[in-house]
Design a protein that fits this description.
homodimer; alpha/beta; five-stranded parallel beta sheet; 4 helices
Amino acid sequence: MGTVVVGYVPTPEGRAALDRAVAEARLRSARLVVINSNRGGRDLDAEDSIRSEADLAAIRDSLGAAGVQHEVRQLVRGMDPAEDLLSAAEESAADLIVIGLRRRTPVGKLILGSNAQEVLLRATCPVLAVKTDTRPEPGER
Amino acid sequence: MGTVVVGYVPTPEGRAALDRAVAEARLRSARLVVINSNRGGRDLDAEDSIRSEADLAAIRDSLGAAGVQHEVRQLVRGMDPAEDLLSAAEESAADLIVIGLRRRTPVGKLILGSNAQEVLLRATCPVLAVKTDTRPEPGER
């Protein structure tokens, strides 16, 4: 049985990546490993942590309902999300990694974040990059 | 019927992208559009052009043998490969774009080329990025 690994964060991009990863896992009859990674420490206060826990519980429920064999890992190890995702992919001999790409600049210009670049370049399997709003902004090419 | 669009160049990365795109098209029962794009002009001499033609003919044969519904387009329009790939994907309402990533620097360090970045950021559908040698070089992380 193959494995699809997805990097999940509670944002529209994270949701888009997760939705697509579920579809890919079903298509391939693969299991799905969901990695929710954050550095912890000052970036994560108690309220965030509770919200995150509830969010991941909801994801577990919906994956169960979708009939996809899955595993949800919340990692707070002080590592970059890219490191956590890549090590999970290596460990599970993933066939596919799914990541969300997000808008980064205040003016809405799309750029590739450093985590996305790290995953794209260092992954030992193909990487599927998913966006949410895929239409260009007015003024963007 | 869905459509998978792949950017093909006659390099190991291009081959890896094509192989994966064929597998994805079969998995999805989709048709495959192969885009071989170059700027033409001084970048392309007569010998290259003949080699390229023979290469594409071989690809057509192997896609036919694989039983994948396909279309091979050789584009010499003076446009960036990213532009050609994105416009083909738009035009065919592609469900997936497959691209190869290649090593770029003389010392073997992996970086994302500008065409890959363009496609990743501007595509209106998910993009699958494929590498050939996915093991890090000695000295690379």
